[in-house]
Amino acid sequence: MARIEELVSSYKAHIGAPWQKNLAGAQKTIFVVYPKTDERRLRARLELFEIATKEAGHRWQLFDFTAVFARWMAATDYRDEYFREPSDLAIKLETDFLHHAAGELRKVLKNSEADADTVVASCGVASLYGFARASLVLKEVEQDIRGRLVLFFPGEYENRNYRLLDARDGWNYLAVPITFHTGGEL
Length: 186
Known about the structure:
Structural class: alpha/beta
CATH class: Alpha Beta
Order of helices and strands: HEHHEHHHEHEEEE
Strand content: 15-25%
Largest sheet: 7 strands, mixed
CATH topology: Rossmann fold
Distance between the termini: 21 Å
Number of domains: 1
């Protein structure tokens, strides 16, 4: 079985199980963890996760982080000056962009079609790298997760720690990991 299909199989087993209702937002989060080299393969197969979700009787909403930085930067005052002197952008990234990225995800989490029986699936998290920490974005939206948040995560999971793009120190998060190696820790 191909690696992406293995992930889909593990995801399907997890998403098809009855959902507990009274969980904290972090506990309603599922990380589908895969090697960063599989990003394009996974994106090409996202519909398999959508099909598995719908077969389990849940709704599906997709959110893509890929263009979030570009749209934010295009709307930023003084963007030309920031391109000339990128180091001046550091403080704005830590505050404004972080809140913007979380706000974009929050719009999907809180829209009228994303209820307690909906999976909001988020891809493109690697595009945040160098601009905002995924852990801080998730922290900002935890209280807005009504159904489940699935984060397609190119990186590593080991000992309850997640490392985006295998590059940064990991962070401990309460999400359910779906991985190649374990078949998903349910």
